[in-house]
Amino acid sequence: MTYKSPRRPQFFYTTAPLPCPYVAGRTERKVVTEITGPDSEAVHDRLSRAGFRRSHNIAYAPVCPSCQSCVPIRIPVATFRPDRTLRKIARANAGLDGFEVAPRATAEQFQLFQRYQHLRHGEGDMATMSFYDYRAMVEDTPITTFIAEFRDDDERLIGACLADKLGDGLSAVYSFFAPGLDKRSLGTYTILWLIERTWALGLPYVYLGYWVPESRKMAYKARFRPAEILMGGTWRPLTDHEAASSGVEAMVSETAG
User: Fold this and answer.
1) If DSSP codes are grouped into helix, strand and coil, which group holds residue 116?
2) Are 48 and 173 in contact (CB under 8 A)?
3) How far is the C-alpha of 169 from the C-alpha of 191, rounded, in Å?
4) Cα-Cα end-to-end distance for the chain
5) pTM for the whole thing?
6) CA distance 172 to 128
7) 104 exposed, middle or buried (CB, 10 Å; 0-12, 13-18, 19+)?
8) pLDDT value of residue 7
9) Tens digit of pLDDT for each residue in 99-143?
10) Does residue 82 have a pLDDT over 60?
11) Which residues make beta-bridge pairs with 147?
């Protein structure tokens, strides 16, 4: 007779209040849990479907008092249809090569990461990250992940995206790209690449993290249609009215995160 070891209990903790990074004047709190052990992949899958995000070996979700602005969003790739703007962005990057590489931090990636942080998020905590901090972000994970690198015709690295592999899709963890190439809309193109890659893998979803209609840098995620959002514990289609309420129809994003 064989015996299965009991499943390790999953402990959750609530963080102290901090200023919200998305909506000025609000306070954020998160519920966090550690992803460890032999069942890490399965735990991460369950938490992702429940609206959690990953950083290193920690999964987190917002539990902000009096605020529900952060809405988990994902793209069902089988029904995704790019609009005219997205098709234009795809054409603008037709000569760009995207590669899936092992999650190993390189000096080349870090130099690009630093340029992106200093010019786009100079006041943020990530702008002060060292190479060892960056390496931990990429390599300190108990689950299957990879980096998508994007190179131009001269083989220069102009974009990268850290992404997780889930049982039902890919999850965009963090992307960064070369400043000064706004016409390429590399943040948006990264998501288009992930959609195509997910389709090629035969998986159903691309998880984009949180859609925040009140935050311009996070509202763009509603442009990828159709999309699904997690409300009341259930994934359901994002409506045209909800997407329009964030002003996304008149917006072209240059960021992803």
Assistant:
1) helix
2) no
3) 13
4) 49
5) 0.90
6) 22
7) exposed
8) 64
9) 999 999 999 999 999 999 988 765 667 878 999 999 999 999 999
10) yes
11) 101, 162
* Single-letter amino acid code for the residue at 35: I
The strand pair at 58-62 and 30-34 is best described as antiparallel
Contacts of 101 (CB under 8 A, 6+ apart): 146, 147, 148, 149
- CB-based contacts of 59, cutoff 8 Å, min separation 6: 32, 33, 34, 35, 43, 44, 47, 48, 52, 53
Q: Which one is the CATH code of 71-250: 3.30.390.30, 3.30.70.120, 3.40.630.30, 3.90.930.12?
A: 3.40.630.30
Confidence label for 220 from pLDDT (cuts 50, 70 and 90): confident
Q: What are phi and psi of 104, to 5 degrees?
A: -125, 120
- Considering the chain, tell me which residue range(s) the CATH 3.40.630.30 domain(s) occupy: 71-250
Q: Tokens representing 130? A: 């060292």
Strand partners, 205: 76, 169
Q: Which residues contact 11 (CB under 8 A, 6 or more apart)?
A: 33, 34
245-257: per-residue pLDDT in tens? Answer: 765 544 444 333 3
Q: What angle do CA 12, 15, 21 make, to 5 degrees?
A: 125
Please name the amino acid found at residue 133. Answer: D
